[in-house]
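Researcher: Let's do a round of design. I'm pasting the structure tokens now; please hold your answer until I've finished.
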């Protein structure tokens, strides 16, 4: 019920955090030429992790960030409407579980920024373009969050396409002294790869098993069973 508020403040925080990270990245690139090799290798590692990831069930209670937050912050184990702060049983100031959700959103964005910011620097080294593209991406995610959240399960090939993009950008960054690929060609490759992944996901037809239930297989060979709301 309070996702809109968490996303609003989460995106404001994400803009600030990404601005700091972009400034650091631009400084490192200006001072250290070899940092491109580090960024490129990191993107290749991320691509491998995406391809090997598979389905993963996330247990919030096992999060180190969440446990660390509970240790250092006064947090009550309840919500108080849409408020981030409240009073505990003793009348003292405390944060609600909704604030914990906001922390996890911010940390998640930092994790994604570690991948995405080097990838943008692989296309252009202009800090202004890197910052504005990140801001537009974040604002677009705010508008499309609920659409993407409901549609992502349909794009079974998108993870492979994203991994392919990271491999391309990572190699491009590591070969910056050998060959220069213009930004226009880089963007064209990215659009074609992502478009192909989405297109294949759309045209993939579900199979029907012997019981008459529809199921489809993802690119890794696992069977995706239909959910109850899908059947409805």
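Researcher: That's everything. Go ahead.
Model: Designed sequence:
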């Amino acid at each position: 019920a309070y996702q809109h508020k968490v996303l609003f403040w989460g995106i404001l925080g994400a803009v600030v955090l990404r601005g700091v990270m972009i400034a650091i990245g631009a400084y490192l690139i200006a001072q250290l030429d070899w940092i491109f090799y580090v960024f490129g290798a990191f993107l290749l590692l991320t691509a491998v992790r995406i391809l090997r990831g598979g389905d993963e069930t996330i247990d919030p209670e096992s999060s180190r960030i969440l446990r660390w937050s509970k240790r250092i912050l006064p947090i009550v184990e309840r919500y108080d409407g849409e408020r981030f702060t409240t009073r505990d049983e003793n009348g003292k100031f405390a944060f609600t579980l909704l604030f914990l959700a906001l922390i996890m959103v911010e940390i998640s964005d930092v994790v994604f920024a570690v991948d995405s910011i080097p990838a943008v620097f692989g296309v252009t080294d202009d800090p202004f373009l890197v910052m504005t593209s990140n801001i537009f991406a974040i604002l677009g995610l705010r508008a499309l969050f609920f659409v993407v959240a409901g549609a992502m399960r349909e794009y079974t090939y998108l993870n492979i396409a994203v991994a392919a993009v990271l491999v391309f950008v990572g190699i491009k960054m590591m070969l910056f002294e050998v060959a220069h690929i213009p930004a226009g060609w880089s963007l064209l490759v990215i659009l074609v790869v992502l478009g192909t992944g989405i297109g294949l996901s759309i045209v993939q037809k579900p199979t029907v098993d012997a019981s008459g239930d529809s199921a489809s297989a993802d690119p890794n060979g696992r069977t995706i069973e239909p959910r109850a709301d899908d059947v409805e």
